Amino acid sequence: AVTPAFRPPERSDFTLTGRPGASVVILGGGIAGLTAAYELGKAGYRCTILEARHRVGGRNLTIRGGDVETDLDGRTQRAGFSDGVYFNAGPGRIAQWMVTMDYCRELGVPVEVFTNQNADAWIYNESAGMTEPVRYRTAKADVYGYVSELLAKATDQGALDAQLTAEDRTRLLAFLQSFGAIGGRTNGWAYTGTSRRGFAAYPGAGNDVGSPLGAPPALSDVFASNVGRYFSFEFGYDQAMLMFQPVGGMDQIPRALAKAVGTHRIRLDAEVTGVTDRGGAVEVTYRQGSRQAQLTADYCVATLPPHLMARVPHNLGTAVTAALADFPVTAAGKIGLEYRSRWWETDQRIYGGITETDLDLSHIWYPSHGFHGKRGLVVGYYNTGANARAYSGLTPEQRRERAVAQGVKIHGDKYRSELVTSYSHAWDRTRYIEGAWTSPRYGTAGYNLLLQPAGRVYFAGDWLSHEVAWQHGAFVAARSAVSSLHQRVMAG
Ligand SMILES: Cc1cc2nc3c(=O)[nH]c(=O)nc-3n(C[C@H](O)[C@H](O)[C@H](O)COP(=O)(O)OP(=O)(O)OC[C@H]3O[C@@H](n4cnc5c(N)ncnc54)[C@H](O)[C@@H]3O)c2cc1C
Ligand SMILES: N=C(N)NCCCC(=O)C(=O)O
């Protein structure tokens, strides 16, 4: 066969066979820690999770009205969202092939489509001189049209004869005519714009042909606007539609995991302060409020972000510390803007999806659920790196003002006037996380060292996978760690 058969991801009815009943202390109650406890629990291990924050989930964080978060700079926000409104401050979407979907199925977490791409969402490149946003459908029609025109001309003029047979040329020209909606040879393969660009007023009854947007800008202006830079996003194997989200918020996943694990096995507000491998057991010290406590178990699974684990005193060796400290960390931030009306649906006909910009807010997300409801939440920025750090240095009020001032350029006055309340999350300033995700140095001795246990301590987290910045990575890394732990226990 030319194409290898599709291999479904490891199934979620992943089960360790044999019931050895050893004890395991798990550091961190994010997706990796909860998954380790869930899978080990199925096999009869006695697990305890130590989680420093006041809730499980880690980076999987959904904010609802009444939630209170204080960042490393001491800025406290109390989310004022209405009942039923939620904001996924961390993960927001899941690809169909990800093992995350299997866990949703197994745990009974209902999912719905997350609209990752929408022909009616906007593109706005201020630095390219755009004074008005353009709809995705219009931008695509023009870029595909002109690229097709150029390639058709070059092909027909013989510029590609060294690469193409006569049959290839005919087939390529036929493809380009349909792909770009361009004229034929007699029209010089010209792109002159079609209904694909969209309408100022859509067609109606009788003789109402509507008001088509008409002729495209000149080829040079279309390329100068640089709208084409966003088209490849939806080609990514990890971002292509259909994408999914849990109904009611991404934290339905950690909530379901915590319930399955048993909340009595999870200690919250428990900050791990030391890990000592005693040879026959692992001793973990932690702080709960003013109380210092200690826990001894047969094994340990450590799922703290690597740059934080590197700072926890331990006796696992300097090579382990150096390897943990060698994960470059990215910043990311998001703001949730609650509106009293769904003007993006009623006035702009945008039902979900993402507007792309070259502003420092980067992306604007419209909700993929609750269509035609009373109110809704727009993600007013989702940015990374320097843009994220620029926002995380501001107060929550300043962040909102900066995001709204820019959003108005794209959406008009309602972007400000209909706003009710907001909450912003800066991952680089979040205690016990201090970053969004890492860039592992795959293939180095340090990375490979952490794939092995350090004595009785196993490591897991999305940072020990090739799907960093995805819950999938945390799930599979946890499964990998508990599988090798279990093999060792069964062999011993
Ligand atoms: C902005 C953003 C967007 C994302 N988008 C997506 C997406 O759309 N889809 C997707 O699938 N994934 C997405 N991700 C990635 C996803 O959130 C992560 O891959 C996943 O949640 C990582 O889980 P983890 O358990 O490895 O780590 P974490 O969630 O970081 O868990 C580590 C845990 O350790 C705890 N901890 C830290 N220090 C201590 C200590 N001293 N003692 C005890 N506990 C401690 C932390 O509080 C935390 O709960 C996104 C992440 C971010 C930040
Ligand atoms: N550099 C990356 N791995 N990007 C992924 C960004 C985080 C994510 O999963 C999402 O937003 O969907």
UniProtKB/TrEMBL annotation:
GO terms for biological process: amino acid catabolic process. PROSITE patterns: TAT. SUPFAM superfamilies: FAD-linked reductases, C-terminal domain, FAD/NAD(P)-binding domain. Keywords: Oxidoreductase, Signal. Substrate binds at residues 93, 381. It comes from the Bacteria. FAD binds at residues 51-52, 90-93, 272. One of its GO terms (molecular function) is L-amino-acid oxidase activity. Its cofactor is FAD. It holds the Pfam family Amino_oxidase. Residues 31-482 form the Amine oxidase domain. This is Monoamine oxidase. The lineage of its organism: Bacteria, Bacillati, Actinomycetota, Actinomycetes, Micromonosporales.
